[in-house]
Fold this sequence. Notes:
Largest sheet: 8 strands, mixed
Low-confidence stretches: 5-23
Helix content: 25-40%
Number of helices: 27
Strand content: 15-25%
Shape: globular
Amino acid sequence: MKQSNWLILVSLLMLGLSASGQAPKRIRTYDLRHVLWKVSFDEESGTLFGDVTNVLTPLDDGLAKVELDAGPMTFTTVEVNGHSAQWRVGGEKLAIDLAKPASRGQVLKVRTVYSAKPEAGIYFVPAKRAYPAKGAVIYTQGEMEDTRYWLPTYDYPDDKATSEAFIEVPRSYTTISNGKLVETLNQGPKRVFHWKTDQPHSTYLISLVAGEYSSGKETWDGIPVDHYVPKGLEEPGRVAFGHTARMVTFYSELTGVRYPYAKFAQSAIPDYMFGGMENISAVSNTIHALHDPADDPLRNSDGLVLHELAHQWFGDLETCQNWSHIWLNEGFASFLPSFYERKFQGQDAYDLSRYQTFMGGFFGVSGGKPMIRADYHDAMEMFDGNAYPGGASRMFMLMNLLGETAFWKGIHQYLEEYRFKNANTEQFFEVMSRSSGKDLDGFRKQWFYVGSAPHLTVTRSGDTVKITQKAPYFDLDLPIWFLSEGKWDKKSVHLVGASSELTKVGAFAKKPLLIDPLVFVMGSISYDLGYKAEDWTSLYRHAPNAAQKARLFDGFGDRVSSDQKKELFREEKAEGLRERMMNIGWTEKELLELAKDHNLRIREQALNSLASMPKSEAVAALAREVFEGDASPALRLDALRCLYRHASDEQLLAKAWQMPTFDDGFRLFALDQWVQTNGDDGRERCLAILKDPPSEPLRVSAISHLGRLKDKPGERRVFFALAGVAREMSFGARSAAINALASYGDKAAIPYIEPATHHSLHFMRNTAKSALKSLQDKP
Length: 779
């Protein structure tokens, strides 16, 4: 699963606010073998009708009852091996009494027929909320433990089963589900899609997407590699997903494990809560993965595709045993894309990707919690910076310790040994130690069970270099490179405890030096060596790779002047580094030149910087030229922001309002400006949007604005408009409405928010709890 930046931030905040508690422990009493599910829908009412058979076998003799995870449902039939059974529901469990105790290995076919109007797990998006799609969409989202709300089964990652689906939808619909499409059957105005997955998988990976979709097709080694987008969005779909087969080839070669499923499909979904989800052989992506072809590569979806594809090996083929070990899924999915970048974009891109990963991992551990822990209340707490870039960072360090050849040999062995099984951190390291012949227990303990990262300080006295670290102490082998006459002299030190020293450095005593010069340690390094600006710039110019250059540049601060930084920028050839170096303090004249750079990302940053500078006719002229003539809608929107700031032309907003685009960015900008310049006018515009929404992005934006604008004295139009949205079944708009009611600040909103504090979906539940607390705390 790939989270949006907003969701990562929410997750980290939730992590910091959560009280300590012990995660519930699952006790398995049976082995789930197969899930046969049949579903149909009443879209208007949001009702699902299901007929599910879970095939399972007891793990021990004497099993007297079977418990399935099940949310609020109305059951009409419950059978075991064709015979009616006694059953009861409670606490999101369906407990089924067996006619007589079952023995170990005995096959039990547990059939349930039911209907439900789920709050979570399955979502009905009407056409009016599907922008930029024009038709309704139905989709599921099972991770973490939400499959139970639409499909009664064993809903925890530590077991695997094969699955088979029969999905009844209107004849104009297409469905995307797991495994191979066996057949489609036309039944009057309806069509039934029959999908089958022969490989065992955890049930949170069971999925469906249904709607009026078009498909784009590739093949890889005879396997379909398809993508599905709402009709009318075929070209954006091709740009976003059209070279996935090359990625499948690369990952198969990198891991040494051939892509293991009957197909690989991707779909684009409106009102989706994540960036993407790795459902086995059928990835779900947010519709925001699509973009106008003219915006490529400014708006590029390769990172999302690579992340979810990597999960087909790490998360689907092999699955974490429980959420405490989710890094085995998310860390590897955040790790593998860097190697694709190295292959197709070059070494500099790979080094910068690794450095960026280390930065994310370092931030992720800043909360003081170790990678492996059980003190969480909600599984979502584990999907944080520790698991994603933190897990990837640790794999970079492990690879550096073992060497790439030995590392990938171990990874291959791990995937083969745990193919279609579950694993934990200890089992992963057991395989890696056995494969490499190295004892990795110390590495495992300090990097996965210590809630910190190294904080190093380098000092020098005479011909001795001293490295100190803050507690808790890490055991590290650190390269130290000294720069002398443009060449590096390479030494090393073993850091253990509070400090270690490198003595008798002789002629290098006063030479600039770097610790971890190739950047393979996730941590902070402070140099208390009295470097002058010339030392820093010399280190930068001679840095051994782009990662070290980025680390140095980020640490320059005011120790290196703007002019010296600009000089380095103009010398730099690596495009990724140039993009990172833009926050220097350019003059208007310099930014006007950079706004014409060959690198679109630098042009974009230059336009954004120009927008914040004092009004200028020259800036307005350039911005107008880009706004009226550039092919990229993204750059044109940046230019519009800049032009409006410098030209103060109100007609620009009227023009922008007449420019619906793929993400509706122009109209969103116009609305923002109207709200800021005239609150009363902005309020009326936002209320009009809620009454007749031009698009869902505009509706969500209007909701957020209204929470801050509030009502005029004596009116309640805004309040009741927000209260109405807070009761609907959408995700994005409802979340925005609950937050907006908290901003509105009227305790009369409590009855409208309180029901959502018990919502099945963790995001909605936590949003409502936070909003409720905000209102209750008001005097």
